[in-house]
Amino acid sequence: MTTTTATTAVTGAVGTAHTRIEGREKVTGAARYAGEIPFADLAHGWLVLSTIARGRIRSVDDAPVLAMPGVLAVLHHGNAPRVDADYVGMLGKPDPVVGVLQHDRVPFVGWPVALVVAETSEQAREAAEALVVHYDQEPHDVAFSAGRPGTYTPDGDAMRTAVGDLESRLAASAHVVDAEYTTPEEHHSAMEPHAATARWDDGRLDIVDSNQGSTWVADELAKLFSLDPPSVRVRSEHVGGAFGSKGLRAHQVLAVMAATVLDRPVRVVMTRRQMFSLIGYRSPTAQRVRLGADPDGRLLAFDHQGQSLSSTVHEFVEESAGFGRAMYAADAHHTVNRLVRLDVPTPTWVRAPGEAPGSFAVESALDELAEKCGMDPIELRARNEPAVGPVSGLPFSSRNLLACFDEGARRFGWADRDPRPGVRREGRWLLGTGTAASTFPVLVAPSTAAVTAEADGMFTVRITAADVGTGARTALTLIAADALEVPTERVRVRIADSDFGPAMIAGGSMGTRSWGWAVMLAARELREKLVPGGDIPPEGLTARSNTSDVIGALAQKERHAFGAQFAEVAVDVTTGEVRVRRMLGIFAAGRIVNPLTARSQLIGGMTWGLSMALHEEAVRDPATGGLVGPDLAGYHIASHADVPHIEADWVDDPDVEDPVGIKGVGEIGIVGAAAAIANAVRHATGVRHRSLPIRPDRVL
Ligand code: MOS
Known about the structure:
Elements: H1 23-28, E1 43-49, E2 55-61, H2 62-66, E3 71-76, E4 105-106, E5 112-118, H3 121-130, E6 132-137, E7 160-163, H4 166-171, E8 175-183, E9 195-201, E10 204-209, H5 214-224, E11 232-235, H6 250-262, E12 266-269, H7 272-278, E13 285-293, E14 299-311, E15 332-342, H8 355-373, H9 377-383, H10 401-412, E16 425-426, E17 429-441, E18 448-453, E19 459-463, H11 472-484, E20 491-495, H12 511-529, E21 541-546, H13 548-552, E22 560-572, E23 578-588, H14 595-614, E24 645-650, H15 673-685, H16 696-699
Parallel strand pairs: 1-12, 10-11, 14-15, 19-20, 23-24
Antiparallel strand pairs: 1-5, 2-4, 2-6, 3-5, 7-15, 8-13, 9-10, 9-12, 13-14, 16-17, 17-22, 18-19, 18-21, 22-23
Helix pairs in contact: 8-15, 11-12, 14-15
The protein binds dioxothiomolybdenum(VI) ion.
Dioxothiomolybdenum(VI) ion binds at residues 212, 243-244, 349-351, 353, 507-508.
């Protein structure tokens, strides 16, 4: 086994560290984001959100506000253009919050009830804050707890799996863990708030946006407003973070409505606080894990019951119980995802949806089982490695979990570890180390790309990719350069314009894999068209690709990336403060296109795992139904001083099916990270924490 950092045995641009193509533009401020691109005659919309958690809007007192300086319009359910939110988009039915201002019902605190449009952003804000909305309030219920009345198992194959007789295998087990784990509501509040500008341009709807997929947003807007798809153009050149939250949301819809009513460009930017109710979030989870093992630590029974919440208006499931389906072999293997519907905003995808909270529960339970078996936690995992997918029975495309543990254990110094809890002391600090496994599915979705040989010797790639801060544009530049066999300086990659044609979104850790595949095919095609020494016409020579057929023909397999997470913590015995001293993550996540940005992605995920373990917790007030302190002062995230030296690296694991060898690195970094820290806290203190975050008041 080798580490790839130095050994990726391919020449060319892919596999070499490359700073971001647009890095200079970003650090000098030349790169403009959706909320700051200038437009002539621009008007500004300000959102007004409900202050009640359930009920009806009785009236909106728009007259006094319409008389305020600069105010152009107040849109509300009584006067807004009609839309049709009953459609199916690229990722299913939309959250009904996009069908905004269509009726008087209020299903949660923070539901959009009006948009005030004015000449300036300040005028719009002042008027929005002055707008009086009268409600008929109804009783609400926002209290999430395990197994509470109304909990059900949604329809769908992803909700439940069952192999073997669970109860008999549990009864036959020498060692049993039966524990409940909880994770709180968590928010992905990207640095760049959601913003969109809409205008009508010669009969076409033109949107400048911040999103994870311009095809996705354009397609949904066309459906919502019943427009011909070619008459909608969405662009999203620079995006300051997304993490699952940046698809179609209420603000783009409201910007289009206002631009239509006023016949001028309208921009709507969310405030930080508005983001906490309008963009989705990670549902809290309550999870029960039951593991049964024989005296040698071989799993006889694996049972994972996950529960999350959704709104009353839309069914979204945080599929925490999906995590174990590819992880461990067991005679009996059961998983189920349950749901309860409350008067809260609809949750959505947040980095490693399902896997992030699911791995906390399962990888903590594995650690508990290792203790009961008197076995090293890595050895326990090794003993339960499956030959094929434990639930699917399908072969793995590749599975290098143990290689990650081998390399990680070596570099972390795991061999010297004394397994006894609570025995290492350094002054007022108790010290401990922990480990956990990580995995994320490897997926790919059809995309189209165009590559043009220009008359001046440059090559232009056009693809509706999104660079949400990951370095996707740079990765695609390296991929295109190698495919064309030219230096990166001769490649120009243009992204994030729905006019370039359909492509996968930046999501599911499958953006670069999906786009890279399409770019490879188009580049190969172009090379065949190019005649050596031949002239390029002034308009250039273009080749196009569509990966639908090749992806549709892939065999059924269990495709995953894997990883091993390690953490060392120090716990203050007087205050309960937990300091993470170091983290190491070793991943088997395909061929690494750009080590510089891939490492940043992995470290970013691990940092979020630290934040999840120790800090993040959105608190919902049962009295109002709203969040307490919904901003980055009230919602604690790890700050710089909380984050120690974090190392991320990888083992050689090129995907054999992907033309570049990519698996994807967007989400796996967070998976298992919180469990590694919780396991380290247990090792340090002897106290097992099954509820996140591990706050000082809960520690000792
Ligand atoms: Mo990501 S949560 O797949 O956008």
